[in-house]
Amino acid sequence: MYDYRYEPHRLIFMIDNKSFYASCECLRLGLNPMTTALAVLSHQPDSDEQSSLIMAASPLAKKKYGLTNVMRARDLPPKSQREDLLLVEPHMNLYIEKSMEVLDIFRKYAAEEDIHTYSIDESMIDMTESWHLFGTDPYLVGRKIQKEIKEKLGLYTTCGIGENPLLAKLAMDIDAKKRWSMIAFWHYIDVP
After folding, report:
1. For 64-104, how does the pLDDT look when each residue is reduced to its tens digit (9 = 90+)?
2. Within this chain, do residues 178 and 114 fall inside the same structural domain, yes or no?
3. What is this structure's pTM?
4. Nearest to 157, CA basis, from 10, 41, 23, 37
5. 46: domain range?
6. What phi, psi does 63 have (nearest 5°)?
7. Active site residues
8. Same domain, 70 and 102
């Protein structure tokens, strides 16, 4: 058995905004991101609509219609089979604005140097030095951050917690996205 005593023991939160572009569009339209079938389609000038790329799809659109990012509009089911699917154009300034608002919330929980933006919708936060200021259990602190983002911005998030960045990312991608709480906490000892 491997001796983990010599590995770095940090407390890393990896937080992802669920179906970010699609969620922002749902909120812009006054709709719930989890119960609305919506896809964001890019549209290039001087091209037909069928070549538009699906940039993002809401969880319901993914489940109900099998949509994935990078599909083309021509791959959508016929209109008669997708009457409740909303197709919208992207609003990048909105996504950037919402991403900045999420980062502002993260800054309440960790120092600027402990927040690492992974992409417009995903960040890694080293909570090693600060988590205990917000609760008695890291899992509950992750839940507190999720609730604040949901209450203030309407966005749903998944949170992976781990003792290093890789464990946090894998906990989020593999485990948290399947859980009702959308949080997973992985330790070295759990991953041989």
Report:
1. 999 988 788 888 888 878 889 999 999 999 999 999 999 99
2. yes
3. 0.89
4. 23
5. 22-88
6. -70, -50
7. 122
8. no
